[in-house]
Amino acid sequence: MTKLIGLGTVLLILVLPRIDHPDAASLGGRITDESLVAIRGATVSATNVFSREVEATQSDADGFYKLIGLQQGRYSVFVKTEDHGCKWVFNIFLFRGQHTQLDLTLAKSQKKVRKDGCTERVRSEK
What is the pLDDT of residue 113? Predict the structure, then answer.
C-alpha cells in the first residue's frame, strides 16, 4: 500500500507541470503590413518586465501568433520581421486566466547600411 501511494505521488509530480494552468495568461493576435496583408514568420517575443522571462513564437501563414502559459504581469512585446523591420509595444498588462489580443501593423522598410557596418531598418517612401 505504501509503495502504491509513493508511486501515485511520483506520477502526480511528473504530470503536474504538463497540465495547462487555468490561472495562466495568454497573448495573441495578427501581424499585418499597412495593406492588412498577413506577415508570415514574424518573430514575436514577450518579456515580463519584472521577472525578465521571455517567451517567443513566430506568426503563421495567416499572420497569427499566440503565446500561452504566461505569468500575470506587465510585458514588453517585440516584433521583428525580415522585410518589415521591427516594433516595440510597452506596458501590456496580462491577467490570470485571460487572453489579451494584440494585433500589430508593420510598415514596409528597406535596409540602410550605416558607416559602422551595421544595418538598420528605415521606413520606405511610397
Answer: 45
Alpha carbon of residue 88 to chain centroid? 12
Residue 1 to residue 107: CA distance in whole angstroms: 65
Query: Are 97 and 25 in contact, with CB atoms under 8 Å apart?
Result: yes
Looking at residue 11, its pLDDT comes to: 43
pLDDT along the chain (126 residues), means of 10: 52 44 88 95 96 97 97 96 89 95 84 47 41
Distance CA 103, CA 83 (A): 18
Q: Domains of the chain by range and CATH?
A: 21-123 (2.60.40.1120)
d(CA 120, CA 122): 7
Q: Is 51 left (phi over 0), alpha (psi -120 to 50) or beta?
A: alpha
Q: How far apart are CA 76 and CA 74, in angstroms?
A: 7
